[in-house]
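Workshop exercise sheet. Pairs work together: one partner reads the sequence aloud, the other fills in the structure field after running the prediction. Swap roles for the next sheet.
Pair: D.N. / O.F.
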Amino acid sequence: MLLSVSNLSKVHNINQIKTSKKANSISFKGNVDEFVSKPEVVFGDIPTLEVQEIIDFTKTSKPLDSGWTSSVFEYKGKIIKAPKEKTFANQQLELQAKGQNLKEYFALQKIKEISPDIATNPYGIIKNKDSYYLIEQMVQGYHPNKKKVSFETLKDLLSKLYSLDTNGIINCDLQAGNIFIDNNKAKLIDFGSYNLITNNGFVAGSDGIPFELFKLNGQIFNETNLDFPIRFMKTFLAPKFSDTKNLMDNPYINMPSNVTNFELRTLYTHLLDNSEENPLEFFKGYLKLKANEYHLKLKSFMQSLNPEDLVNNGLNDEQIKAIKEGLKNAISFEELSQNLLQSNDEDIIKAQLAKLQLRTFLNLGDSLKSPIENSKKLQAAYNNLILILEDGIKNNDGDKKEYFSKTLEFFKKAFENYNFVDGQVEIPENEDLIKVLFKKMSETVQDEVKTNVPKIEQKIKSSSNKKLLPFVALGAIIVGVVAFIIKKVNFSVRNKSTPETKKPLDTLINYNLLKNLNSTFLKFKR
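Structure field:
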């Protein structure tokens, strides 16, 4: 649930609970009243003499980049985000745009308290009349679009996204352009749009809150100053967060996740843009890392919580019981996820790909030029996921069956009131994650066969030493075994509008190569 101005005012602090020691660590020059009222006020680490120079620089220089509300400039090795001078539909919207940098400064200060290595560090902010100028660290590196990403980088990124999730700060725009990679370390930029978990467990979206509430010691500051374990336990009592695409994978946890946003905004495109030679193997590796760098840590975090800590803080027995039950179910599902995502199981992999497909299409819905056409593709993705989960329930037992059942229940409930457009279409083949990734896997194996068979042939033909024969024969056997395994592997991609189809991977393999090898080998043997 996104908090509007009206329902945000209904949030109440639990004053008896000890607040975070870091809550008041934000330093600034001048007091809060000056910050709000004076025409030019600076806080942070900005020399006062540079204030007018910075403002003038943004008026006369060409920006590096430009977004909806701000233009980005490089100034003395730092980044300046200056409010754009543009015409808005109304004065209120104009004021919100001019105050957007204040919201981002608020988030970056909180993230810096967690760790200075997660995101770009804020150096300060300048208030000039009604406009706010954000000065922050310049980050070096490259973006993960159309470039290989190492597992070491993924491990670092997942660890940092976990830290943000377990501190209640969720970036709503983790696209590739907002992730920098340098020396296998990831760093995030652009927190212009984000969610916060408030003291009562609500999800507060920065986009829907007036920027004035983000001032130092203002309402948002006071509504997010409790330790996160307290805020997290309260999410089990809060109204259901309705943004399905950004929700955590765990159906029992009622909050969005940085990992989910990264997957639908960056990982989906990365798997399809030919960055990785074998994107399916890359995805398997990602799932294994996610199992240990995210699900295992999240499970341990929840196991460390004690709802009894809330007994003397305004909660009744029924509420404490609900939190305990929610934690129990959430921990159990995290354990399922941890074990299954690192199992390399094909059914689990397909379910994860189908889920990513659905969430990505759901995210793109409002931004596409053809929303009706996208809604039809969304329905195809939804039906595909449901069929995969139903097959998983039918064909498995134990942990896998439980995992598929709970995931199916979650997505059916999430989409029960969704109005799909009549006339489902098939997902374009170049956008279908399951088809693309499994096809590329088979092509990679085929390329290996094409490369290795001629080498073996040449070795057989040119060899005059029959002592090498057993080793050459072994190579031929290995190639044959690989081809045999591939021949036995089938994958199917179905949707509700078409009957089930199965396309064996061996139709993509040129077995004439193996026949030629066999023929050459027999000639040599004679």
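Discussion prompt: Residues 1-39, 487-515, 520-526 have pLDDT under 50 and may be disordered. What would you look at next?
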